[in-house]
Write a structure and sequence with these properties.
mainly alpha
Length: 165
């Protein structure tokens, strides 16, 4: 049996993950009408994971070696994604951006630098929100922590309901 169908199904699962991130990043009214329903995100999540698992199962049936290569690659990619989204790595990126901006525009204060960087990264957040963030979290470390939380979408920011129980 050929591993090609398994590879195709795994790639479709990965494409589903990319689509999921894309749709979740859009504002409500920027989404297509079908993606505005409350069941769309959970349904897409279910489909992408089912495709990924089905593709891995097909690969395991075709060749254990191809299964282990694909599974190992997925684990490495997952670890890489988790690392680059970590608060520590984002803090390092923010510090690097601050140092670069300080070299290019030494007249800016620390608050102005944080504002400039946040506005460049997330223009949809708006200047009022970013100004408040800079006032509340004036250091690079604290600002990086809150930016990571907001990028991930934490309860109270993303509009998710508190879990009961």
């Amino acid at each position: 049996m050929s591993p090609v169908p398994g590879i195709i199904v795994v790639v479709l699962g990965l494409l589903g993950m990319v689509l999921s991130v894309h749709f979740k990043g859009l504002r409500y009214f920027d989404r297509p009408s079908v993606a505005r329903h409350s069941w769309f995100d959970p349904a897409l999540d279910l489909v992408k994971w089912l495709l990924l698992l089905a593709g891995l199962a097909l690969l395991a049936r075709a060749s254990l070696a191809s299964f282990f290569v694909a599974a190992g690659t997925l684990v490495v990619l997952g670890c890489y994604r988790r690392f680059i989204r970590s608060a520590r790595f984002q803090q390092r990126l923010l510090a690097r951006d601050c140092a670069s901006l300080r070299r290019n525009r030494p007249e800016l204060s620390d608050e102005e630098m944080l504002f400039e960087i946040a506005l460049r990264r997330h223009p949809r957040w708006g200047p009022e929100l970013i100004e408040q963030m800079v006032r509340d979290y004036p250091t690079v470390e604290a600002f990086a922590r809150i930016m990571v939380k907001m990028e991930r979408g934490f309860r109270g920011f993303s509009g998710k309901r508190a879990s009961s129980g």
